[in-house]
Amino acid sequence: MPTEPYDLGPMVASWVRSLRARNLSDNTIRIYSTAANGFRDFLLEEYEPADSKARPEPEELEDIHREHLEAYITRTTQRTSPSNAHQHYRSLKTMFNWLVEEEELDLHPMRSMKGPRTPEAEVPVIPEDHLKKLFQVVKGKGYAERRDAAMLMLFADTGVRLSECTDRRVGDLDLDLNVLRVMGKGTKWRGVPFGRTTAQALDRYLRAAAKHKGKPLTPDMWLWWGADRRHVHHRFTVWGVGQMLKKRCQEAGIPAYHPHQFRHTFAHQWKLDGGNDDDLMRITGWTSPAMVARYGKSAGVERARKAHQRHSPLDRLM
């Protein structure tokens, strides 16, 4: 009699509960669970042996083999991108590490598996004229304009990650020291400084938010809220930020940028202005100089050209 394929769902749910118990960020848990549930759905609905020698669909947890995972990663690469497939690979490896630690499995099915190659493409930075156009469309005095201006300036002025900016409470913001307290990767807190222009935009936003909600803001409240009066008590999510940026870019007549491009743009402008790499690492939350080099690659040719204009041997000689 044919048997049902193994449902990984209950194990995924247990793993996600363990992630919450470790107090990982909402964004990290979202990334991990997306990969795990994607693999679970693949085994239940899509997996088919490539040929007669390939392994059948697993009927038990211990039947999950490297072949099943390689088939899922291959499909994810084809449907999305190598970088997204590599993220799924890392997430699944973490989950199977947990299953071995919990003694649900004796052997790690990914122990000899290598992740997909991810060609490193340079992420285009946002040109200064596009930034100016973007800030121009949020110059209004309404709540949505105040909120969007404050958030976009925070992205541009600090290079914070999307989740670091979005998952904040009012008490994380200090407008006397001009510092935002964020939780980065590895559940590490750090203070991110911002400039006077951003501080003014944030101050205006806080006053507009109190009026929008009809009551004073308290330190334990979420920092960002929806603009629709029907959803005044709904916090502004990472999905909402992406939609907001897409809409504002359209209004400004510029390409649709992703929030993470502000991080690359911040690193580029910091290095272009001769900023210190150690300071850049502290602000962005990077622990490896390799990350500075990776993000610094964006628009590196432009920085080299401007550096040559300043240091041209022949220009000095003549």
Explain the overall architecture.
The chain is mainly alpha-helical and 318 residues long. It has a three-stranded antiparallel beta sheet. It has 14 helices and three strands. It has two domains: 9-101, Orthogonal Bundle (DNA polymerase, domain 1), CATH 1.10.150; 128-307, Intergrase catalytic core (hpI Integrase, Chain A), CATH 1.10.443. Strand 2 (179-183) and strand 3 (189-193) form a beta hairpin. The radius of gyration is 23 Å and the shape is globular. The model has no long low-confidence stretch (mean pLDDT 88). It has helices at 9-21, 26-45, 66-79, 82-101, 128-136, 143-158, 162-166, 196-213, 238-252, 260-272, 277-284, 289-296, 300-311, 313-317, and strands at 173-174, 179-183, 189-193.
Features:
single chain, 318 residues, DNA polymerase, domain 1, three-stranded antiparallel β-sheet, globular
Rg to the nearest angstrom?
A: 23 Å
Give the CA-based shape. globular
Number of domains: 2
| Order of strands across the main sheet | 1-2-3
- What percent of residues adopt helix (DSSP H or I)? 55-70%
CA distance, first residue to last residue: 88 Å
CATH class of the largest domain: Mainly Alpha
* Oligomeric grouping of the chains: single chain
Instruction: Describe the sheet with the most strands.
Output: 3 strands, antiparallel
Secondary structure layout plus pairing:
Layout: H1 9-21, H2 26-45, H3 66-79, H4 82-101, H5 128-136, H6 143-158, H7 162-166, E1 173-174, E2 179-183, E3 189-193, H8 196-213, H9 238-252, H10 260-272, H11 277-284, H12 289-296, H13 300-311, H14 313-317
Antiparallel strand pairs: 1-2, 2-3
